[in-house]
Amino acid sequence: MTYSFTPDTTKWSADNARTCARLASLAYLDEPAQVAANLKTDHGLTRCQIVEASGTDTQGFVASNDQMVVVAFRGTEPVIRDWMTDARAARLSFAPGSVHRGFLRAFTSIWDQTQAEIRRHQTGKQTLWFTGHSLGGALATLAVAKLRLSQPPQEVQGLYTFGCPRVGDLDFREAFDTDFSARAFRYVNEDDIVPRLAPEELGYHHVGRLLWFDAAGKLSRDVSGYETLLKASQVDFASVLAGVVAPLENHSMKYYHAKASTESGQRWA
């Protein structure tokens, strides 16, 4: 498959979404040499460095060429199940507002290393991008917030997440969206359960612009249609988190990548 990317746009792009889905998938590979080879051959990203914090099972990579720097974080289902339980749903202060304690712990464990690599890779005027799936999407969201909501704010070109859970409270969402909503694209596949966590009932809210795939792979930004789908999909959260029932199937990155790689999605700016 041929991947193309427009590094200087701030608008949604089907090509950029397809590429970010691929990069989020590569974040799951365990062999650094294999990651680097794929990035170079398929995406023209000639420099790559793995970042990881073994104590929190947090990992990703920073990759670049002369036009762009991209940071991709990975997520793991066992960690999501663990950190989505009520015992770990408490929030801690972060930027304006507060965010999920477990996500912040993972982010803090890897951020200094990640930021140092971004500085090392960003040798010119390359644009900076973030992507990630599941927990990786939460980490990418926190990274953008860290850079954009600090003083002075630092330039970030765009954010694409896939199956991202809710990260922070209403104050966090309002600050994030006021600054960056037009550049943040949040993909959801069918009735994927993870984007419904952490629960709104506990004060959590999504950021960015929703795009969701239906069962046929059609891409939509119709929020009412998505809400109708959720109402038709009654979920026992406890059973899902315990691994007893199946809505996590639609959370798999392979489906996000496959659907983002088709031409069935509608195009919008």
Q: How would you describe this protein?
A:
With 269 residues, the chain is of the alpha/beta class. It has one domain (14-260): 3-Layer(aba) Sandwich (Rossmann fold). 38% of the residues lie in helices and 19% in strands. The chain contains nine helices and ten strands. It has helices spanning 14-26, 32-43, 77-83, 101-121, 135-148, 170-180, 223-232, 237-241, 253-260; strands at 47-53, 58-64, 68-73, 91-93, 98-100, 127-133, 158-162, 184-189, 209-213, 219-220. The protein has an eight-stranded mixed β-sheet, sandwiched between helices. A hairpin with a 3-residue loop joins β2 (58-64) and β3. α1 (14-26) packs antiparallel against α9 (253-260) and α4 (101-121) packs across α5 (135-148). It is globular. The protein starts with 13 loop residues before the first helix and ends in a 9-residue tail after the last helix.
Q: Could you spell the SSE succession in H and E letters?
A: HHEEEHEEHEHEHEEEHHH
* N-to-C span: 24 Å
Q: How would you name the oligomeric state of the polypeptide chains in this document?
A: single chain
> What value does the average pLDDT take?
87
Number-wise, the strands total 10
The biggest sheet amounts to: 8 strands, mixed
Low-confidence stretches: 264-269
Total helical elements:
9
- How would you describe the shape? globular
CATH superfamily: Alpha/Beta hydrolase fold, catalytic domain
CATH class identity: Alpha Beta
What structural class do the secondary elements suggest?
alpha/beta
Beta content: 15-25%
What is the CATH architecture term?
Answer: 3-Layer(aba) Sandwich
CATH topology: Rossmann fold
